Amino acid sequence: MRIRKRLVWTASGAALAVPVSGALASGWNMPVGVTDLSRDIHGLHMAIFWICVVIGIVVFGAFFYSLFRYRRSRGARPSHFREHTTVEVIWTIVPLLILVAIAIPATATLKAMYDTSEADMEVLITGQQWRWRYEYRGEDVAFLSNLATPREQIAGQGKKGEHYLREVDEPLVLPVGRKVRLLLTSDDVIHSWWVPELGVKQDAMPGFVNENWVRINEPGTYRGQCAELCGRDHGFMPVVVEAVAPERFDGWLAERRAAAAEAAMGLDRDWAMDELMERGEQVYGTICVSCHQPDGRGNPPVFPALAGNQTLMDDRARHIETVINGVAGSAMPAFRNTLNPVEIAAVITYERNAWGNETGDRVQPSAIAERIAE
Amino acid sequence: MWRVIASVLAAFFGVQKESRRQEDFSRGGAGPFIVAGVLLAIVLVALIALVATLAAG
Q1: Assign residue A27 a region: left if phi > 0, alpha if psi is -120 to 50, beta otherwise?
Q2: Most exposed among A118, A164, A174, B15, judged by the fewest C-beta atoms under 10 Å?
Q3: Distance in angstroms (rounded) separating the CA atoms of residues A75 and A98
Q4: Which helix (H) or strand (E) holds A10?
């Protein structure tokens, strides 16, 4: 009898331990992460998890023991009492104490999360349908971060890569060891910038600026996703953060600043058809393609066709206006702050000459810059 | 007076003796309990606000 009892306990212990340790090792659990805060969050998560496990064992243990030990076939008779103040007080006080014990470290962690003061640098993160825009505040460096997974893989025509739907053309580059304040907002609907390894999940809302911060301890590539359902391509706007040594970051930032200055210079000169078409195809392929489709046929009536669109071909001014300022009340966003004049000029030129739209028009970056400045 | 406060606090806590409940229901109206309940609720909110301020400070 005693051996049998011990066997039952050992078996039930093993039955519990195997799935738990398996789940912890499988990657289904929250990651420990690479910041002090993400470690604190993970520690809290595990501590509360084990408290719940112990409560579960005690409560269900007592429950099943009573069911078994005091079953009717062994002649057990229920007692009929209406109240027992002492027991009621105990089962109210004990959870209260447990909750307070959890609340104290949880509050300390929350306070640390909200303390965005004394940051070394600031990045403005803007969510857009369906990509992220990163702006290094005070550095004249800003860029879009688009999904880099090839369309063939998404359409099931190619083998899926290792980082399928979790790869971008331009990752957010951040220095290790510096405190970075993150400012989050949105151009259209509510998005949420989520990188589990950094312990950051913050909503990006139109008309609001939310704050968070991060200080990364280890160099590496950290991937995340938009965590707030934001429309059709919600699953196609991943986040990739590249954490590098501070010296490397400074070098990278200087390079980007120089590149931005160079791009601005492109405004002075006359661009040839070939250059505009090449650049335009590239911009179209990352920005416009998700709505207007690779063949320019769109998805009417929500996303109009550009290929063979007579209004577009006849009314060049309206075409330019539409790309710069968007169309109020429709799904077409304004690109005046999202794309630079070179990109806007190139993509309009491309749309006016691709898929059989042979207008022969060239739109110059300088003209777009003037139009935006008006 | 003390009995009313004790009963309201017991209600906040969620546990009351049956004998006390019987007594409370056999004496007078609900007025004193309502007044004590509203006042003590204000005290409770102020207390929680104080704790929250101290924790955040």
Answers
A1: left
A2: A118
A3: 37
A4: helix A2-26
Instruction: Please state whether beta strands A121-128 and A131-136 pair in parallel, antiparallel, or not at all (unpaired).
Output: antiparallel
Question: What CA–CA distances, in Å, run from A47 to A39, A79, B37?
Answer: 12, 38, 37
CA dist., res. B20 & res. B5, Å (int): 12
As a whole number of angstroms, the distance between CA A172 and CA A127 comes to 13
DSSP three-state, residue A299:
strand
Residue A302 has pLDDT above 90, yes or no: no
A83:B18 CB<8 A: yes
- Other C-beta atoms closer than 10 Å to the C-beta of A124 total 16
Averaged pLDDT for residues A222-231: 95
Interface contact B17-A89, CB threshold 8 A:
no
Residue A238 banded pLDDT, cuts 50, 70, 90: very high
Q: Which of A81, A84, A85 to substitute to test the interface with B, most B CBs within 10 Å? A: A85
DSSP state of A270: P
Comparing C-alpha atoms, which of A316, A317, A369 is closest to residue A343? Answer: A369
Residue (of A339, A350, A336, A342) closest to A367 by Cα position? A342
Structure tokens at A164: 């399928």
Taking an 8 Å cut-off on Cβ atoms, the answer to whether A85 and B17 are in contact is yes
Using DSSP, how many helices (H) and how many strands (E) does chain A show? 11, 10
Domains defined along chain A, listed by start: 24-114 (1.10.287.90), 121-263 (2.60.40.420), 266-373 (1.10.760.10)
